[in-house]
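Section handout 9: paired folding examples.
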Amino acid sequence: MMEPDGDTPRVHPTAIVEAGVQLGARTAVWDGVHLRGPSSIGRDCIIGEKTYIAYGVSMGNYVKVNAHVYVCTGITIEDRVFIGAGVIFTNDRYPRAFSDGFERLAPSEPTADTLQTVVQRGATIGAGARIGAGIQIGPYAMVGMGSIVTHTVPPHGLVYGTPARLHGYVCVCGAPFRGADRDDGAQKGACACERCGRRYAFAEGHGLTLHPHD
């Protein structure tokens, strides 16, 4: 790993950083990483070893990406997201190796069937999770390790399983609320985190909303 010079990003000598990749201040790129361009990675991020990030990916600030993560084109990752080791994103609605007519390989560039996925601010994706194409993981949501996510996750939603299902809600600090093993929204109306004291309002079908004064 190269020593930083002020705000200069730190890039391991074995990493491949293609032309067109934008790296924010103080971001660290570890060994064996492959970053394809054009793509954008914000400031103060960590990109763990052996991770692949495709062209067209946009990543915010203060993002932690562990080792052996695969981020394909069409993925947007907002600020302060955590992505555990071995997470795989997908983006193709009808994946095939061949084109119509069977005469040649399917193109690698995006097509009309390439779907966009957004991981919103503060969300956590546990190690080994698989993220389906064309979904949204809401702010501060938490995806359990090894989950297969095929549907949009609401704000603060706690999902896990294969396929992943909603089992409750978590605070900004990560602590689950009482009744987090239930899938019916357990917390109705106003509620507060027992760990940090943040207060929330629960809206049916929309997850948790942080109280405006917290």
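Moving on to protein 2 of 2.
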Amino acid sequence: MRWPSAWVDPALLGLLEGTPFNCLAMEWSAALGPVVSKARAMNLSVVAIGKDSARAAGVGAGLTAPPDNLLLAADSVWPGITPVNGAELSGPTANPWIDSNGWYLRLAKVQSPEKTVWLMFEPPAPPRVTVLDAYLRAIADTGTWGGRWAVSVDADLRGDLPRGDAKALATWKAIAAAVAFFEKRRVWSLLQPLGVVGVVSDFAGPNKTASEEILNLLGRRSLAYRILEKSAAPTASLAGFQALIAVDAGAPAPPLRRKLLAFVQQGGLVMAGAGWKPADGKPAGVDHPRVDVRKLGKGRLAISKAEEPDPFMIARDVHMLMGRTYDVARFFNLSAFLSYCSATVDQTQEAVQIVSFAGRPGDDVATAWVPGKCTSARLFSLGSEDPKPLEMVSENGGTSLFLPAVPVYAGLELSRA
């Protein structure tokens, strides 16, 4: 956890007893010396964080420097629905206002597969009040996509926990239990992401902002995607993809262009940037306001008409052009949520995770639909030690799974023949 600088009493380390926390991330000050000494006696690690000078001072005082196999992400966001003019927007179309680190964690896993990603965001400052569900959502948003959060408590908990306030202690216990929940299910982070849409980019330079926002917006549409770094794409397997988004500035290099054209010839859809010239194929007879849709072999090539296409419209258009036939999952009676679907290589075991940002009433029920047949399905919920079997019904070429209310998080573990 991120140890508050004001907590200079070593007795406060008792809060960590019986919790999964085994490391303190600390901005060093001499007043914290007794805390560091007791933490080491409790076999806790103490890592120096902060700006370069503060981190160096901590290391100089004997704290541990962040290991090379950690990726500390200080620019991550507090997960939640973005307030607009003081109000949180929610409802059937609220997903565009969701702040999440899921896309960042997925990209980091592709770009730095050997590193564990630690997110360093903090709760909102007053006058916003951070309730328990907000903490649980922050933990779920991180754990669902395989990251870890250096848990940081807000001003109220920083003041109330040292005084032994009962409500604060109950909140702290629930926070620790949620962290433990995802640590126990860390194996889910080893599963392979499912997705029929691939995003091809170098995610750098002039392409960084747009390509990252495309990932963000695809997630908000619950459109399952996979990431292909441009340098590896020419030799990567495209098995399972139905559409590829390749809208980086300029023309694709010849090897990548040939790969994408072969994908289209075999029946795929490619969303290409305006730099794709000359335009291959023949006009498809589609009067589209943003892309020139062309037929090529069994597939289609959709070339952007704008030099800098809107990422929001790219995410929307690829979904519209591809249709819902190849959905990895569909969800009903849920709003303002994100989902993540992953599976073993042979796809006999699958995880479908849902993070709700809407704060829906506790009596709402929801349904998840997945293609194909499931032999069993179990529901994992925060605050519950044991999974519960889910009712399943075969319909529409797939399996409908009936869920209880999802106030913050639901993890579905599916088995297939």
